[in-house]
Amino acid sequence: MRVILPLVLAGAVVAAQETPRFSASTQLVEVYASVTDARGEPVTNLTRDDFVVREDGEAQAISAFAVGEFPLTVALGVDRSWSMAGEKLRLAKQASAAFLRELRPGDQSMVLAISSTADVIAPLDADRASQLRAIAALDPWSTTALRDALVVALDRLEPEPGRQALIVFSDGVDRYSDASASDVLTRARRSNALIYPIAFGRTRPPLLAELAVLTGGRSFLLPDAADLQRTLSQIARELRHQYLIGYVPARAATPGESEWRSISVSVKNQPAGLRVRARDGYTTE
After folding, report:
1. From CA 2, how far away is CA 248, in angstroms rounded?
2. Mind listing the pLDDT tens digit for each residue in 219-247?
3. Is the full-model pTM beyond 0.90?
């Protein structure tokens, strides 16, 4: 069995031109990692020996390691509900376009418009220019079905290879979804995507913070929508520079049984201010 998992430790980087392909073992768990310093900048000089990976509290032997700018598939969810009308939607569209322009040519992207439904307005096979036009054409509409949109985006990302990320921003509490918070968390546990929720205003739904911790992403609360573009640029830098860590679990999975296993990743002799974020576990199959 092969398990592919993303993990974020606060900022990694070096140059690798192609996504490495590790030979499949009985079970190979692959974890994408980012590491950042006290200023939030990527840490780029770490090696295999600098990392410690634990599964259910037990240290694991790292059997595969690579550093580089790995190809990325990203879904960008834009809240277009009536509460976003005016300056907030204008800034959201502007920041979304800037984020897409920061992606590398080999990266794939898609755009979802979030209202009472989650509509893919620019699919993965659309060129970047078409995606930018789709964002520019967004108008406010209806209410917010944020949980449903998260499930739709994760379902669409599921079959894509390599690194996956979901970035979604909204200013409101979910008012329309069929999916519950528990449904979204269950779906995220089965996903490989790093989730980066960005909330406008003064409150952040607890679900958004939980999703970031669970998947190894980050959650943001922006009292001022004018900070959105800077936040998206920060996310783009974090996604650009990552480590890929692989290990074969010391305790083999039981065939036919599904089990949640926790993951923790740290850096040896971790200096003050170094941030390590990691996906907190995975489900065996």
Report:
1. 9
2. 998 888 888 888 888 888 888 888 899 99
3. no
